[in-house]
Structure formats: C-alpha cells, structure tokens
Amino acid sequence: MPWHRLILLCLLAVFLRTAAALDSQDFLPPEQAFKLTASAETADKVELHWQIVEGYHLYRDKTKFQSQTEAIQLGQASMPEGVTEHDPSLGEVVVYRNALDVVLPLINQNRETQLKLLVKYQGCADVGVCYPPQKVLLDVALPAAQPAANGGALNQFVKGLKGLTPGLFSEELLPPDQAFQFFASLKDPHTVQASWQIAEGYYLYKDKLSVKLQGATQTQLTPLQLPEGAAYHDAEFGQVQIYRNQISVDIPLLRGSSAAETIKLLAKFQGCADRGVCYPPMQAEVSVDLPPADALPQAKPVAVAELSEQDKIVNALRHDSLALTLFSFFGFGLLLAFTPCVFPMIPILSGIIVGHGDQIGTRKAFLLSLSYVFASALMYTLFGILAALFGSNLQATFQEPWVIAVFSGLFVVLSLSMFGFYHLELPKSLQSVLHHSSDKHRDGSYLGAGIMGALSSLIVGPCVAAPLAAALIYIGQTGDVVLGGSALFLMGLGMGAPLLLLGASAGKLLPKAGDWLNATKAVFGVAMLAVAVWMLSRILPAAVTMFLWSLLLVIPAIFLGAIDPLPESATGWRKLWKGLGIVMLVFGILQLIGLSAGNSNPLKPLQGMGLNAQAQPVEGLSFQRVASVAELEQRIQQASASGKPVMLDFYADWCISCKEMEAYTFTDAQVKQQLANFVVLQADVTANNEADKALLKRFELVGPPGIIFFGADGRERVAQRVIGYQDAATFLKTLQQL
User: Fold this and answer.
1) Closest CA to 123 of 181, 165, 82, 170
2) Which of 360, 487, 519, 657 is the most buried if burial means most Cβ atoms within 10 Å?
3) What angle do helix axes 428-442 and 446-455 make, rounded to 10 degrees?
4) E strands of 585-670, at which residues?
5) Do 379 and 486 fall within a single domain?
6) Could you tell me the pLDDT band of residue 274, with boundaries at 50, 70 and 90?
7) From which residue to which does the signal peptide run (predicted)?
8) What is the DSSP string of 173-191?
9) Residue range 570-591: mean pLDDT, rounded
10) Mean per-residue pLDDT for 105-134?
11) Where are the beta strands (DSSP E) in 82-157?
C-alpha cells in the first residue's frame, strides 16, 4: 500500500475514533457547565461566582478580566489557590472545581454606577474534551457611593482602598507621590539626570516610563535610554521588565542656544505594589534651570540602543509581513546548512540512497531525500514548538549518553552492512533483528528515510543559532504557534535544501552496478563510521576519541593499498587511491604518535612537540564554573564590587559549537588578551537538570552555545549577546563593542 494512503487511513481512523467518543456522551454547553453570575454590594468591588458542574473544571491562568468602562479601572483580582493537577497537554496546572468565587476591586474615582466587564475563561470536561476560550460581557450595576473626602483623586483611592479589604493589608498603601518620587537635576550644561525613588515593596514598569519637554524651548531631549530591568511575569501584561528601589538615567540635551533658560520636564510612569494593587498612570512635572553654555557641541546622531541578533529577529517576526518572514527564515536555514551541525546528515542521507543499490533512479533518489528533509524539518518544528511553550529543550534530552551510544551503534551496524560482512560478526539471533532494522532504514523506503530524518534532527544535529532562539522566544512570549512554527519549518527546509540537491544528483552520478558500486558503498560505510565516532566524541574522553579517529584513517588506508606496491601497469585511478591512502595512513600514524605524547586534538596531533622544546600546547580560557542562578548572581556582584566585567559561557559536552569555540576561539591570543580583565564564568548544562534549566531560563536561552556579557556595573550588555558559533575574528569584533 502506498505510504500516503497508509497515512490517510491512520488519520481517518483517529478522526472516527474521536467522533465516536464525542457521540458516546452529551456535553453541556459552556454557559451551563460553568454558570457565571456577578454582583456588586459597593461601588468599589465586584464579586463573581462560577457554579461548576461535576466532572468539569476551570483553568486558573485562563481566567482574566477587563473593564470596558473607561472611567473604571480594575485592581488585582483576589482568586483562591485552586488545586494543582497534571494536564496531558499543559503539564502542571491549577484548576477549580465545583465553584469559584472571585473578588475584583474597582478603581472607580468618578463613582460610576454601571460597569461593563469582559470576563475571559476556559475549562474542560474531565473526559478530555476542552471548550474554546469563553468571552462574556457583563453589565454590572454599581450602588451609589458616599462622596469621598477632599483631596487628590489618587490619594483618596489609595487611602480608601484598604477599607474595602481590611484583612488584605497589614499597613496602609502609600500615596502615589510617596511610593514613586520623581526627581530631575542638572548633571552638566548639556545633560539632565532623571531619577525615580521607588519605595520598598513597590515597582515601576519599564515600558510605561517616558520623559518629555513641556512648553516652548530651543532645547530638545535625546531618546530615553533606559537600563535593563528585572524580568517579571505580570498577570495582565505577560512578561515585562520592572524597576525597584531606584532608577536613574542621563538624558543628553540638544541645545539650540547657549543662553541660560529654564526647561520643564514632564515624566509619565505607572507602577504597582507587590500586594497586588496597581496605581493608575501618573505624571510629574519638574523645572530645571540650564546655565549658559560656553560652546554648543556639534549635533551627533543619537545612538539608539542596539538589540542582540536574536532580539532583532524577534522584532522582525512581530512586524514583518508573513511572506518576508518565511522567506527570511528559509534563508537562515540555507546559511545554517553549511555549519558542522548539518554536515553529519550528508553521509546519513547518502548511505540511505546508496543502500538501495543499482535500482536507484533520479526520481526515487530525490523523493527519498525529500522524505528525509521533510521529516527532519517537521520534527525540528514540532519539538521546537514544544520547547518554546513548555520551557524544555527536548533536543538536549536526546543527548543522554545511552541515547548517543545506541544511535552510534546503529550507524556502525549500517556501515558494516555497507561493507557486506557485518553479519559475520554477530550471532544469528541478533543478526536477523539488526538486519531487519537496518534494512528498514536504508533500503530506499520513504518511511525509513523519514524516520532517519526525524531522528537525525534530534540526535545528530542539536544546533542552537540566533534564528532558532528567536523563533522559540517569539512563540514562548506570544503563543503564536502558527507563525513561529511556520518560520521554524521553513528554516528546517532551508537547512535541508542542499540535501535535496544531493539526492537529485545522486541518482545520476552514482554507479549502477559492478566494482564501482561496491567501492562507493565502502566509501559511505567509512563515512557512517565517521559519524558514529563524531557522535561518540560527546561522551567519550578526548584521548579515546582521538584513538578511534586514527583507526578510522589507518584501516581504510590499508584497503586503499597504501602499503601495497603499485604494478607497472597501474592506472591513474589506482595511483590516485594509493596516494590518498598514504596521506590517510601518515596522518593516522601522526595521531597515534601525538596520542602517546599526551595530545588529544585530532586536528593538531603534534602540537607542542616541536624541536624548540619550550613549545607548549595552546591553552584556552580558565573558566570559573557556576552551577545555579544564586551562585551566578553572587559571582556577578563580586565582580561588580571589584570593577570588573563578566563573561558567562553556556557549555555542554554534546554541544559541537561549544567545543569549536573552546578549540578555536577561546585559544586565540588576541581573544585571551581582550578578556584579560574579565571574570570568565561557565555554566555547564550537560546534565540538563533543574539547576541547568533555571540558568537557561534566566536568560531565555534555548540551549548552548550562548555567551552573556555583564558590565562592571553588573548589568547585562544585551546587544552583545552571542548565540551560536563565532570564530576568533568575529568574536573579537563583539568584544570591541563592549
């Protein structure tokens, strides 16, 4: 049966089974399963009540409220704790059963008597059927309230709010002008310093801060360059940045006249108290006297705060058109196709095509390649979306030593089958199992090629680069799985485009039968052994890996006739293969010599063994390891106290780009000189345990490699983040921007 018919039948079976299950039970309409009522005993709060039918439940994090009456704002809803349950799709969630009562404070300064309240919620039946998100617009009548005492509207609200919920607060909320004090002072004739003093237990939103000039003046303000704030998850706004205690920022002035003048600054800001009460937007006006300026500086272009590469791509995802976004990500995939993360897929796909023998044609070779690439891109997209939504790098999960060992063993079995004699090395029972398994994955079947493509995307090439990180951050922040997933899929196809060209050409270029076909199979058999050694290098000691590489050079060199004499009638091809074999033999022997001398770099086996005896192997950076977020913060504070900047490197044993950085970038003399004054830290996330995940989540990283820089003030230099591999020259340019 053709594979597409099999897939269609499977989908049809799933659909019919689901339909039968839905028919087997009548489900209540959402308004009956979750009966919602609202009432208001005072003008300052609304009480909402859900009556939840037995066998149904509501999600806490899906319950939200919005005021549709402009004159009324909502406070922080008081919701019960709920029950933590495991949801098959969402993981650990908090749900409500039987009943839910919510008290919703109102900021009703104008004493409105009517509130339009939009309530959003979502729930499911216990049998596994979930309702779409519900939106209900309620008209709530508010009783008339007694006039408030004289005073500012904001101060009246804050003083009166504690009386609405006497058991909620242990002390009075501060008036807004005490919770958030704004100051402005003159730093020099061309610079104003703006500061906010924030009371303990309160915070300001970064994106709500602005400073503008009031009135007619010949002076202009440059754009406000705010420092990085602390990451904070807001129930209404999602992931935001906030400031606590104090925030100060220098604002350069563009003065049109050297004469003295007085300018008026209007600052706008909004903040909340930790206890859950948020203040309405506030503003403050401050006058600053500018002295005469001796000389007016030449106007310079204002430096706009740079974004890191991944943040630029995230912004593009938010604002670019769909066509441009997909085209860009396909281009990113093409660029990633020529990285070490993708190279191992070439011998894998080639082995699948060659394994079909002399019956392969151009059309079938291309379709095999398409099956491999499509499955790889699909798996890349699926696990990328899951990682973004649930915060787990599933590719890292597949880097467990036993997984790598099993997959490497599979490549050894496949390579031996290329040579045609692996069955001689195995017992009969195991031989039949392995032969059946290897045939499925290399006999030319589309399903086999798809399986190998899916596994390759997870195990062979867990490559983290800026486009991948940006797509996952975008999905995680916005929940837009369609656009983010489409971008990931197009990037996966871009990464596989060269493989499609390889498949299309293989049908024409590969020999159809005879000794040439056997020789071609042997070449790809060696290539598959190289993939197995390359994968094992993630879990084996460097010396063992170097020994395996030397064997992989020496033994095939002997088969190429490196030690056999050439007959006088030898053809040009025979001489070429012998020459190649001699090169492989010599280099393999050099690796064995270097290994015996204590070297472990297979590309530089004789490093440090020159006649000038003082030559020593080039060493990389001496990292200080950090194992938790708390330890990292402590090290950053210590470095800041000493006036030193910090470089944090995320590393894992299974990360190929990380090892490239260690071998070629961090050993560069200029790089080491540039980092001489830095405190260099390294987070080894090989184990992928909870502490490792917390470190990655702290910086919204998908996985290694990732390099984070902090200034001597302890603040991250976001624009200089490094995601993915950089060679020494490129990395030096990054360091020079700090």
Assistant:
1) 82
2) 487
3) 90
4) 624-625, 646-651
5) yes
6) confident
7) 1-21
8) PPPHHHHEEEEEEEEETTE
9) 87
10) 83
11) 83-87, 91-96, 99-107, 114-121, 123-125, 134-141
Which DSSP helix (H) or strand (E) runs through 478?
Answer: helix 466-478
Residues 39 and 104 occupy one common structural domain = yes
Which residues sit opposite 289 in a β-bridge?
262
Output the six-digit token pair for 77: 């809803």
Rounded CA-CA distance 652/661 in Å is 12
More confident residue, 581 or 277: 581
**Is 646 a residue whose pLDDT tops 90?**
yes
- Does 2 fall in a domain? no
Please say whether the beta carbons of 353 and 510 come within 8 A: yes
Structure tokens at 181: 């004090």
Q: Which two tokens stand for residue 514?
A: 């005879």
The answer to whether the predicted template modeling score (pTM) of the entire model surpasses 0.85 is no
Dihedral sign from CA coordinates of 728, 734, 735, 737: positive
CA distance 311 to 48: 40
Report the candidate in 149, 141, 6 with the shortest Cα–Cα distance to residue 450: 6
First to last CA, the chain: 61
Same domain, 329 and 454: yes
Residue 547: the pLDDT is 92
Which pLDDT score is estimated for 12?
A: 46
d(CA 241, CA 223): 19
Rounded-to-integer distance, Cα 346 and Cα 502, Å? 8
Per-residue pLDDT tens digits for 599-631: 877 888 887 676 544 445 567 788 999 988 889
Q: Is residue 657 located within the same domain as residue 719? A: yes
- CB atoms < 10 A from the CB of 5, how many? 9
Quote the pLDDT of residue 529: 82
**Token output for 284:** 């403050």
How many residues are present in the chain? 738
> What mean pLDDT, rounded, does the chain reach?
75
Highest-confidence segment of 288-297, 453-462, 500-509: 288-297
